[in-house]
Amino acid sequence: MAVIVAGGKGVRMQSDLKKQYMTLDGIPVLVRTITAFDSHPCVDEIILVVPKTDLDYCRDELIRPVALSAPLHIVPGGISRQDSVSAGLAMANYLSADNKSTLVLVHDGVRPFVNPSLVDACLDKAKETGACIPVIEISDTVKEIRAESRISKTLDRRILFRAQTPQVFRLDRILAAFSHALKNDFSGTDEASILEHAHIPVHTVDGDPFNIKLTTPQDLLLAEFILKERDHILA
User: Fold this and answer.
1) CATH number of 25's domain
2) What is the pLDDT of residues 186-197, one digit of tens each?
C-alpha cells in the first residue's frame, strides 16, 4: 500500500496556495501523484495524509472528481513530516492483515513524476531486504561550511547521494523504527533516517532524475518542461 504525504505549507514556493494543490496543465500536483500510484498494479490501498484543515477540500474538490481504482483513505497529518507519516502508518497498520508481508511505500505528495519502473525497482529490493529507497548520485563538488561562511572541508561526493521517494519498507520494520524514534525523542529528515537510527539496514536502488520534488518556483518551471516533454524524455 502507498502512504502519500502532503502536509507541506509551501513556504519556499512563495505562494498563498500550498504547493501540493498547484496545477500542472490544469491538474493539481497531488492528483497527479495519487493517480500515478493508483495506476500501479501492486498498489492495492492508498493512504493520503493532509493537514487537518484541508480534509474536506481534498475529499470534495480533489479526490471525488477523480475515478480511482484503489481504495483511498484520507487521514489528518501532524505538525511535522514524521508525525504525518506516523499517522499514515497507523492507518496502514489498521488495514494490513500481516505486517511482516505488507510493504508500504511512503511518497512525497509533491513528486508527481514518479515512474512505474522506479516503483517496481524499490518494491523488488524491499521484498528482498525489507527496506529500500531510491537515491541519486551527486555530481557537484560538495563543501562543508562552518562559521563566517568559511569552507571547512570538501566532502567525498563518491559516497554522497540524494534521497528520493518512494521509500519502501516492510510494515513491521518501519513501525518498529518509528516506535524506537518516539521512545528516544528522535526526529529524522526522512523515513530511512528513522530506520537507520533504530539500526535497521536500509538498501538503495538508482533513483530517477525526473522524479523531482516541487519545492521552489524554479521547480515548477522544470516540472512544466518535464510535463511537456515527458513522452520523449521518459521513453
Assistant:
1) 3.90.550.10
2) 999 999 999 999
